[in-house]
């Protein structure tokens, strides 16, 4: 991420897709002024992607939901763009976004708050967004005496190590929200090249186990070790020597490698540990197949990955979850194919059902 630009006023908010047409709280009748609608829109504005990993419940539910579902990193230290979360006994709680961090440890938040009825259109935006400074020790603004600070949610794409092509790539296991970010890039890449959603999600179900859908991860987190990348090419030189300069942390290049393998009959071969021994379909046929995603996930596991244990039903379940999630997204327009450079191995669901109480 480049230099962080704090939002301290409501300029540009009225009518913006972040808070209106693309905001699920607005669609459900719980739009601005409302802390959850605001925080969702602000993260969307910061990252450029819908933060579908966030809770669609009350502000006081966000932090617990994030931990329970394993969505984003979280902690007790403020970061720019982090979501600050508070509960309030018997009430809906509150969320806000960290915009500035001061030398004394205090931090400035931008926020909105539930207010009905709406009295004017366009609205008085000063009631839709305001800022406060929170104490660095209590993590609360002066008016929050009845609130209990829960923690900060650190959303992907804000201060994350994104490489130039937009991938989250690092030698660490990714969170669910980070995996979703990369999964969307993979669907856009392959979907725009004619691959079926079934095939892409079958790969994603396997990639989740192999690498947490991370183009920068090494096997067992040992740098320069054996396997590397989205599908854990082993040894890693099968990929790196083919890719050449700039091969590390390069998600697009790794996707290109998979395309190259498909086009050149590489990596897809028989497996004597399963039935049938020979692949029922070619790799090229796999790429456009509309067979059940669970079936294709097993084919990719057996005839592409070739693990020591071919009985891994969790990969098919993961593939099914990716299908449910990505089925609402359209791939980019088709691209013209480009020749590959010769040389080898190369989870959540639809938006949750709205069950919204009165939101702050």
Report what the structure shows:
The chain is of the alpha+beta class and 360 residues long. It folds into two domains: 24-154, endopeptidase domain like (from Nostoc punctiforme) (endopeptidase fold (from Nostoc punctiforme)); 176-326, Lysozyme. Helices cover 30% and strands 9% of the residues. It has helices spanning 24-27, 35-47, 62-69, 176-191, 197-211, 237-243, 251-263, 283-288, 293-305, 313-326; strands spanning 73-75, 83-87, 94-101, 107-111, 130-134, 148-154. The protein has a six-stranded antiparallel sheet with strand order 1-6-2-3-4-5, covered by helices on one side. It is elongated, with a radius of gyration of 23 Å. The relative contact order is 0.14.
Question: Please, how many domains?
Answer: 2
CATH class of the largest domain: Mainly Alpha
What's the total number of strands? 6
> Strand-and-helix sequence, N→C?
HHHEEEEEEHHHHHHH
Main β-sheet, spatial strand arrangement: 1-6-2-3-4-5
Specify the number of helices.
Answer: 10
Q: Radius of gyration in whole Å, from Cα?
A: 23 Å
Largest beta-sheet details:
6 strands, antiparallel
Task: Quote the average pLDDT.
Answer: 87
List keywords for this structure.
360 residues, endopeptidase fold (from Nostoc punctiforme), disordered C terminus
């Amino acid at each position: 991420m480049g230099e962080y630009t704090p939002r301290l006023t409501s300029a540009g908010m009225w009518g913006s897709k972040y808070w209106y047409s693309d905001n699920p709280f607005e669609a459900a009748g719980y739009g601005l002024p409302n802390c959850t609608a605001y925080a969702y829109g602000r993260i969307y504005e910061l990252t450029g992607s819908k933060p579908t990993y966030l809770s669609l419940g009350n502000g006081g539910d966000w932090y617990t939901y994030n931990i329970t579902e394993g969505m984003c990193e979280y902690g007790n230290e403020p970061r720019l763009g982090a979501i600050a979360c508070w509960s309030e006994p018997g009430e809906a709680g509150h969320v806000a976004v960290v915009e500035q961090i001061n030398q004394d440890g205090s931090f400035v938040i931008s926020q909105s708050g539930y207010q009905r009825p709406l009295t004017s259109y366009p609205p008085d935006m000063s009631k839709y967004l305001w800022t406060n400074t929170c104490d660095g020790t209590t993590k609360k603004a002066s008016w929050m005496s009845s609130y209990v600070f829960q923690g900060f949610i650190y959303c992907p794409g804000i201060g994350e190590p994104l490489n130039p092509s937009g991938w989250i790539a690092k030698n660490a296991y990714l969170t669910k929200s980070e995996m979703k970010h990369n999964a969307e890039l993979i669907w856009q890449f392959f979907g725009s090249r004619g691959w079926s959603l079934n095939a892409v999600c079958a790969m994603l179900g396997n990639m989740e186990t192999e690498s947490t859908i991370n183009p920068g991860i090494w096997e067992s987190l040992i740098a320069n070790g054996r396997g590397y990348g989205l599908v854990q090419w082993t040894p890693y030189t099968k990929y790196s020597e083919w890719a050449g300069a700039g091969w590390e942390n390069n998600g697009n290049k790794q996707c290109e490698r998979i395309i190259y393998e498909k086009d050149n009959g590489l990596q897809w071969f028989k497996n004597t540990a399963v039935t049938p021994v020979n692949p029922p379909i070619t790799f090229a046929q796999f790429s456009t197949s509309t067979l059940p995603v669970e079936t294709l996930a097993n084919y990719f596991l057996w005839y592409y990955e070739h693990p020591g244990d071919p009985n891994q039903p969790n990969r098919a379940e993961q593939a099914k979850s990716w299908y449910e999630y990505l089925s609402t997204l359209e791939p980019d327009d088709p691209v013209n194919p480009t020749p590959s450079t010769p040389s080898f191995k190369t989870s959540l669901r639809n938006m949750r059902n709205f069950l919204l109480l009165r939101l702050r």
